[in-house]
Amino acid sequence: MSTITTTLKELEEKNKITILFACEAGSRAFGYENENSDHDIRFIYKHDLEWYLTVFPQTDVLEVNIGKVEFHGWDIRKTLFLIGKSNPSILEWFISPTIYKETEEVKMLRELSTDCFSVKPLLFHYIKMGITNLKAQEERSDQKGMLYALKSILFGRWILENESLPRLTLPQLLQDSSVHDHIKIQGKTLFRRETLRKPEHLIGNLEEELNQLEKKARLLKERRVMDQNRIDCVFRSIVRR
Length: 241
Fold this sequence. Notes:
By secondary structure, the chain is α+β, with helices and mostly antiparallel strands. The protein has 11 helices and 5 strands.
């Protein structure tokens, strides 16, 4: 952790930015990592006010790879725009159990992300990701396609029932869910990184779960509208500090 926080400080100095928020993402954030898993560090940053006063496009993403640690950050303007669209990546960052840095401004971002939370588009995002990962599994030599599809299903079910993202690891989420017992048994095998004897059985059950989720998602009417004035106010408040 000390190496990660040190690198974050170095990124601030080198790029003349202020990091507002940094967290662990990926497998280590959701409790299915192994000893070889990389660290996926995600962060939100801002520049000085002067940086934003230009008519020309600016780079709003910062990426650095150091060994087995990947740093990927978004500028506050990009972040706020995506919060308004209920972007799943940022929402997942905010539920990470491992936070490396969080300034007082992030409270506004968290409140905004809660108020902008939109069930239907999020649900369709996870359904689409689940379908895509199951199709990709045919070309994979590992079992990650099934693992990612299972995550999509567990998140989709939770969103449908709770209108929020789960603050649980995937193993906990699987244990507490009402999915078919066969999915629970083989899902636990996936989390242990053990090879399934008959993966086609799990794939079939996951496909059925995704089909059922899609049917329920299509019945939803809710669609929240981005509050542009509020988002602009939060943006101005943060960059002027």
